[in-house]
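wait is this the right file?? whatever heres the structure
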């Protein structure tokens, strides 16, 4: 068994095209799971908050069915048809089913194939960038987390601690052995990332009398700083802010969106984080020389 693993590992290391192809397939499969995380994790958090409130009030928790990332089985929200394994093949099932439930023909959100395709493409690009290495494995995890956070923030304007905090600590652990940067730069990056948005938050609140962003944004920028060091933070802030301004102005002009309607900032930080993953030295040197 060990010899077979060594042979497979050697083959993947020597054949970049095979490794990239398998990486894309793996990304598609994980993208299907990320759809579950994006849909269920906020509901699990809301349920946990409800139970905590009942406990503080001295009330008994109601008997409810177990709801986790694994149970119950995925089903159509309209007819409750249980989705079979053949109906859950990334991208292919959506195309075969023509984007509709096989039982009641209710349209399936385009979000599902988009998340699967995006994950597959980014994982393929990561494998092309870093090759068959431990760095690729850590970069995969970084991408998975950012995709989940992006779409959860779009839906709920929440960036769950269950994802942001492990992402931050994993970045620091990875850089103990000089992964993307040295550990000193990573620690300073985590602290500077958090404090930069924390200070911005309080200045905005003092001036405008309301909140301009959430604490999840602080933690996400801290996580990006932990992965890539403090040197990348100016570029990350500039890229995310530029995208936020472009999208915000476009929504106001073309979608008649009100200026007071809140807009999640996490997706723009995620875009900047992906840019840092692929072009960290170039982005950092642009500011620091």
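ok assuming it is, sequence goes like this
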């Amino acid at each position: 068994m060990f010899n077979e693993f060594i042979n497979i590992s050697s083959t993947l290391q020597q054949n970049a095209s095979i490794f990239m192809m398998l990486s894309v397939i793996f990304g598609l499969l994980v993208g299907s799971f990320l759809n579950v995380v994006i849909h269920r994790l906020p509901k699990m958090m809301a349920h946990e908050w409800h139970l905590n409130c009942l406990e503080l009030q001295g009330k008994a928790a109601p008997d409810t069915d177990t709801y986790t990332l694994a149970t119950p089985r995925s089903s159509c929200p309209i007819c409750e048809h249980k989705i079979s394994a053949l109906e859950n093949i990334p991208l292919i099932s959506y195309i075969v089913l023509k984007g509709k439930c096989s039982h009641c023909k209710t349209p399936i959100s385009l979000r599902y194939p988009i998340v699967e395709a995006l994950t597959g493409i980014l994982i393929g690009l990561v494998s092309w960038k870093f090759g068959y290495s431990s760095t690729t494995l850590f970069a995969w995890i970084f991408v998975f987390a950012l995709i989940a956070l992006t779409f959860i923030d779009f839906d709920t304007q929440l960036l769950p601690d269950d994802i942001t905090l492990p992402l931050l600590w994993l970045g620091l652990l990875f850089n103990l052995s000089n992964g993307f940067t040295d550990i000193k730069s990573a620690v300073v990056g985590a602290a500077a990332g958090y404090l930069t948005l924390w200070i911005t938050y309080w200045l905005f609140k003092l001036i405008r009398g309301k909140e301009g962003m959430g604490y999840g944004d602080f933690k996400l920028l801290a996580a990006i700083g932990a992965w890539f060091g403090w040197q990348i933070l100016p570029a990350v802030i500039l890229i995310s802010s530029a995208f936020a301004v472009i999208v915000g102005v476009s929504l106001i002009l073309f979608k008649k969106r009100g200026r007071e309607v809140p807009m999640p900032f996490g997706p723009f930080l995620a875009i900047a984080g992906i840019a840092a993953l692929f072009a960290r030295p170039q982005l950092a040197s642009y500011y620091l020389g």
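The mean pLDDT is 88. so i think its the right one actually
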